[in-house]
């Protein structure tokens, strides 16, 4: 019995030898340069956040919202350092999944791969729905009415009480008395992006580069034109609701910065990944942060922060200041921006599946490379299908926050993985600068934890809903203690702690959904992945 237990434990936590990963590199086309990678990162980071959530964040925090973007970008910087080291020293794609396989072993790698599937799938669906909303609003702005029954999902039309949902249900055509209601724009853009990603990374990068250049030009024009209408009186008070108001939007704003996760899935298509991937990760983070700060400063100067709790804050600010013609261009830019986000995430998901398939954890067909286009063809088609089918039926507003938990969980594992990786691989590529954490980790993180606990409103009596909060806090204390005793690297330790803090802010219902999703994944792994794993060897694959 004891031998059997140790055997299972050994199989669950078997790791890949990082020094042998070069033998796994596939026939993907190496075409991405530093410029292309930076554009991919910017495309993923500057998306819905700049055109939507920045309004809610400004409403809560006022002009001082610029501090939120600075602090959030610094928080992401610690994760970015860890991603950059893994990306530079790991010659294959796979993102956090591959990095977890190297550092933690097969079981954690599977959990991260399963987690990334949910993160990318739900994220892509949400972006597709947002794209559809912007597209139909843009058509309405040029006096083209798009049928309501062709612009929302079935369950929204049936169950919501809004006037638009009721009209869609009433006016929808029937087949055997069943209303035909479908979000056609969301489905069509997903199909088009899937085709583009299928036919080649070169075509995808060219399209993305054009989209990013257009988006940056429009945003720079907004900053320049908007600055001419700034009323400095709107900047007073600069922090109207205190620091609690600023930090209220931390979790939401954080997820505007997840682009470097998708970047790390393109390793095998980079011309020089060791040099270009770390540079692109930091460059896209810096450029995006500067644009976010400038936009936040200008928009809160154009109109009062009281008025920015709207779905399209940039367009609203232009309308309020009389710049009506430019508002139409901005709405079109939002569509372009959403397209770029969808493109980058559609590139990332198939490459994660491809690597899981190579390792035997998923069926072999998913690692098939198209002989002409040199892309993971089956995985790309399956990715598109996994997005389109739920779009036909589901209202995703209830589960979009799962993307937030999934992203933070992946960031946490990558940061922690650097601590383990140091003992397994030496690299001449980019590495996280070593700063001993024996004293600095508790000195920097314990005050942060103390201040955080004073901003969290908890019930006097412990309840079930507080389990995620206290679990994350205990995990953070354990991380500080472990890193201090072992004198481990400071920057990854701070990354782990900050990700735990953000995870603690997630609603308990989303934690329940997340744990349920991971439980399903564990069943799949135990019944298929563990037995078919390449590391299991031929003797266990009966």
Automatic annotation (TrEMBL):
InterPro entries recorded: AA/rel_permease1, CAT_C
Swiss-Prot/TrEMBL keywords: Membrane, Transmembrane, Transmembrane helix, Transport
Entry GO CC: membrane
Residue ranges occupied by any Cationic amino acid transporter C-terminal domain in the UniProt entry: 490-533
Keyword Cell membrane: no
Subcellular location, record wording: Membrane
Membrane topology according to the record: Multi-pass membrane protein
GO molecular function: amino acid transmembrane transporter activity
Transmembrane spans: 37-59, 65-84, 178-199, 211-230, 242-260, 281-306, 326-348, 373-393, 399-420, 432-453, 465-483, 488-505, 511-528
Keyword Membrane tagged: yes
Official protein name in the record: Amino acid/polyamine/organocation transporter, APC superfamily
């Amino acid at each position: 019995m004891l031998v059997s237990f140790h055997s299972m434990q050994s199989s669950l936590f078997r790791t890949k030898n990082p020094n042998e990963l070069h033998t796994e590199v596939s026939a993907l086309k190496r075409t991405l340069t530093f410029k292309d990678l930076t554009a991919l990162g910017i495309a993923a980071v500057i998306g819905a956040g700049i055109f939507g959530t920045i309004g809610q964040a400004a409403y809560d925090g006022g002009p001082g919202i610029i501090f939120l973007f600075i602090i959030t970008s610094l928080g992401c910087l610690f994760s970015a350092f860890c991603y950059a080291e893994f990306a530079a020293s790991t010659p294959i794609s796979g993102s956090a999944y591959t990095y977890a396989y190297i550092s933690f072993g097969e079981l954690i790698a599977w959990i991260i791969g399963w987690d990334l599937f949910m993160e990318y799938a739900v994220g892509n669906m949400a972006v597709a729905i947002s794209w559809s909303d912007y597209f139909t609003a843009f058509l309405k702005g040029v006096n083209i009415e798009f049928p309501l029954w062709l612009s929302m999902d079935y369950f929204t039309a049936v169950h919501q009480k809004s006037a638009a949902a009721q009209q869609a249900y009433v006016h929808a055509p029937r087949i055997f008395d069943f209303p035909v209601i479908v979000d056609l724009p969301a489905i069509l853009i997903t199909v088009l992006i899937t085709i583009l990603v299928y036919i080649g990374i070169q075509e995808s990068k060219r399209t993305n580069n054009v989209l990013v250049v257009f988006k940056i030009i429009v945003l720079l024009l907004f900053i320049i034109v908007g600055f001419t209408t700034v009323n400095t009186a709107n900047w007073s008070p600069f922090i109207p609701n205190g620091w609690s108001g600023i930090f209220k939007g931390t979790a939401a704003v954080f997820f505007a910065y997840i682009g470097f996760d998708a970047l790390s899935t393109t390793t095998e298509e980079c011309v020089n990944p060791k040099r270009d991937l770390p540079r692109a990760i930091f460059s896209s983070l810096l450029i995006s942060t500067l644009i976010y700060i400038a936009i936040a400063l200008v928009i809160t100067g154009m109109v009062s922060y009281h008025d920015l709790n709207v779905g399209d804050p940039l367009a609203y600010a232009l309308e309020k200041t009389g710049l009506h013609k430019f508002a139409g261009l901005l709405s079109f830019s939002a569509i372009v921006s959403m397209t770029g986000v969808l493109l980058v995430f559609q590139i990332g998901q198939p490459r994660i599946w491809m690597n899981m398939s190579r390792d035997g954890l998923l069926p072999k067909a998913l690692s098939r490379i198209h002989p002409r286009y040199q892309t993971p063809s089956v995985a790309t088609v399956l990715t598109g299908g996994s997005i389109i089918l739920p779009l036909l039926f589901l209202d995703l507003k209830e589960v979009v926050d799962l993307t937030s938990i999934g992203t933070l969980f992946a960031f946490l594992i990558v940061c922690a993985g650097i601590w383990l990786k140091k003992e397994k691989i030496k690299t001449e590529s980019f590495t996280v600068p070593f700063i001993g954490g024996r004293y600095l980790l508790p000195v920097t993180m314990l005050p942060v934890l103390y201040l955080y606990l004073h901003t969290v409103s908890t019930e006097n009596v412990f309840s079930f809903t507080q389990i995620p909060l206290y679990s994350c806090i205990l995990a953070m204390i354990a991380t500080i203690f472990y890193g201090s005793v072992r004198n481990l690297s400071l920057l990854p330790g701070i990354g782990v702690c900050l990700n735990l803090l953000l995870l603690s802010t997630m609603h308990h219902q989303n934690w329940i959904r997340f744990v349920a999703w991971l439980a399903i994944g564990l069943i799949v792994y135990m019944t298929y992945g563990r037995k078919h794993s390449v590391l299991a060897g031929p003797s266990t694959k009966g």
